[in-house]
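Record passed on underneath.
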Amino acid sequence: MPVWLRFNLLHAGGPDPNGWLHSNWRPVPQVIVGLLVLVGAYLIVTGSRNRTSAGAQINPVTRGQRIRFILGALTILIALNPPLDDWSGHYLLFAHMVQHLLLIMLAMPLLITGTPPWLISRLIRPAPIQQIGYYLTRPVACAVIANLAIVIWHLPFSYNAAPRHEPIHIAEHVTFLVAAFFAWWPVLGRNPEWPSLPPLLACLYIFLEAIPGSIVGAVITFASPGLYAVYPAAPRIWEIGVGTDQQLAGLTMWVLNGFIYFGWVTIIFLRWASAEDRAEHGRPTGSTAPA
C-alpha cells in the first residue's frame, strides 16, 4: 500500500481507537488538506488578488468576515478530526450528533457570513448556476432540501451505515454541509442574485425550519435504547450506557438545536426592532444580520 494511503484514510469499521481519551489522535489528511486549500484560496482571493498595484483594496472585505470564515473552517477541522471523529465513529451516538451540530449550526453560518457577497457573485456568475441556484435557494426549496437530508440520514439504515463504511460516512458529512448551506441561506445570504428573506419572514422561516429536526430529536430521545444498532455493539466508554448515550444525542438534536434557532430568531428580531426604532427617530439604520 502506498505510504500516503497508510494515514487515517479509512477509520470507519476499523479497530477501535485505544489511545489517550479513547482516540488514536491520527489527523484525517483529506480534511486537513482540503481545509488548507479552502482557507488559502480564500485569503489569496480576498487579500493579495484583491488589491491594486498601489495596495488599495478593490472589493470590500472586513476583518470580521475573515475571522468568521477561518473559524468556520476550524469548526469543520474540529468536527471531523480526533478525538471527536473517533468517538463518533466507534463509541458514542452523542458524539456523532455533536459532529452534526457543529457542521450544521456553527460551521456553515460562519462560512456564509464570512464570505463577501462579491466573492459569491463571482462563483455563481455562470448563467445556469445563477438560474438553478435561484430556484434552489427559495425558502420552501431550502427547507425541503435541508430537512429531507436530515430526516434521511437519521433513519436507522442510513445512520447505521455511516460509522461502518467510510465512503458513506464522508457522504453523510458532505450532505450535512450542503444541507446546512440551504438551511441558512434564506436567513444569512446577502446576494441579490439569490435574495434572502426580510427579518420578520426570516424569523418565521427559522421557526418552521426547526420543527422537523426537533421531531426527529424527540423520537430519538424517547425511542427504546438501541435505535441505531451500531452503537449497542460498541464498547462503552466513560460508563455512558446505551440508553443514556441515545438520550443525550436526541436531546442535543431536539433541545440544543432549538435553543440555537431561538437565539437566531431573538437576534434577528431585536436587530430589526432596533433598526425600526432608529428609522422612526431619523437615525441611520444598521443591518439585521452579520455582514
Observations:
- The first helix runs from residue 29 to 46.
